Amino acid sequence: MQLSGFTDEAGKDLATQIKACKELGWTHLSARSIGGTNIHELSEDDFRQAADQLDEAGIQVVEFGSLIGNWAKPISSDFDITLAEIDRAIPRMKRLNTNCVRIMSYAMEPWGENQQDTERFRRLREIVKRFEGAGLQAVHENCQNYGGFSAEHTLRLVEEVPGLKLVFDTGNPVFTRDRSKPEPHPWQDALEFYRAVKAHVAHVHVKDCLNPPEGSTEPEKYTMPGEGQARLLETLKEMKADGYNGGFAIEPHVATVFHVQDGQEPDWQQCYDSFIAYGKAFEAMVRSLD
């Protein structure tokens, strides 16, 4: 079973990210940002140095967490932005020898408004086609995007976009309303979501968290693996029974890296320590399946 993680949650600089991998005994990482900049937005010199640094450390990139179609981009955004991101991502993925790129299906519009389904499908077909043409696989994450509205929405994407596969995030359903069910739209059930989409899952992101308190404006609360409402251990058991043989990438979100105010710098030592603790806790959970 291949374990990795989004190491930009352990450290901003690549040296610290590599250090975290080595402390956990991992030979792979999930690449997203270096120095606070996404891989496909780095300068050519900075990317070249990063790729060489990974080679020297003997660390491989198992997936590329791109910004393509992500939760920050509305479907009305200029598609040329997306196409340019693809053009920059492809040669960098080739250099890093990774064939898996995480994409999304553009930001959710307020429920009840026009989601422009047809335009989303058109864009994703073109995105997948361009990566396929380079021998690369686009995988869609169930996050704060159209495909995250429900498992049914994700399956609609798979149906409408030939060649699309999925990266299943275990924690995102916990704080996302299930828009396939009647009002008041209950929180999604992570295990039910997995069961609905499992035939298309090629990779897994590991998060755990607690629902936002009903009637409050507080956000979801991220937890150590197995301490939240993602039904993580149950899901892992089912994945094993189903013969899932893809990778797992931890994406803890438990430290200050994702919870600081604009302009503030995270406590990077806390981030590093919590990433290591999370990785060890998840490894223990995986070993308990044997």
Structural overview:
- By secondary structure, the chain is of the alpha/beta class.
- It is built from eight helices and twelve strands.
- The chain has helices at residues 14-24, 44-57, 79-96, 117-133, 151-160, 190-197, 232-242, 268-287; strands at residues 3-5, 28-31, 33-34, 37-38, 60-65, 100-103, 137-141, 165-169, 201-206, 209-210, 221-222, 247-250.
- The strands form three sheets. The protein has an eight-stranded parallel sheet. A two-stranded antiparallel sheet has the order 3-4. Strands 10-11 form a two-stranded antiparallel ribbon.
- β7, α5 and β8 (165-169) form a beta-alpha-beta unit.
- The longest helix is centred in the last third of the chain and has 20 residues, at 268-287.
- The protein is globular, with a radius of gyration of 18 Å.
- The termini are close together.
- The model has no long low-confidence stretch (mean pLDDT 95).
Q: Provide the CATH top-level class.
A: Alpha Beta
The figure for the number of domains is: 1
How many individual helices?
8
What's the N-to-C terminus distance?
Answer: 12 Å
List the helices and strands and how they pair.
Layout: E1 3-5, H1 14-24, E2 28-31, E3 33-34, E4 37-38, H2 44-57, E5 60-65, H3 79-96, E6 100-103, H4 117-133, E7 137-141, H5 151-160, E8 165-169, H6 190-197, E9 201-206, E10 209-210, E11 221-222, H7 232-242, E12 247-250, H8 268-287
Parallel strand pairs: 1-12, 2-5, 5-6, 6-7, 7-8, 8-9, 9-12
Antiparallel strand pairs: 3-4, 10-11
Helix pairs in contact: 1-8, 3-4, 5-6
